[in-house]
Amino acid sequence: MPFKKGNTQGKGRPKGKSNKVTEEARSIFSEVMEGEMQNIKDSLQVLRENSDEKYLKALSSLMPYFMPKQTETEVTVSETMSEPSWFKEVLDHTDQTETKLTE
Question: Is the pLDDT score of 82 beyond 90?
């Protein structure tokens, strides 16, 4: 019997879920890295003391793993800017208050 699209038996991994091996590998790697944090800090400090250039290069190569990538977005506004309806009233009130203070 040939396979027909959309006719599944509901078996298999749900869409988007990683497999067990990937999950276990990430868990092991996380544990290893937690144990290495002090060594990483010490190594970065040695780089910082010996060569600013190498230190900055090491930091910049690590950043993509811990910081989201920044993207540039251009925003254009097609509306003309006009004063809010209450703006003139506030200015008139401020002018009147300043006039009373100077008298």
Answer: no
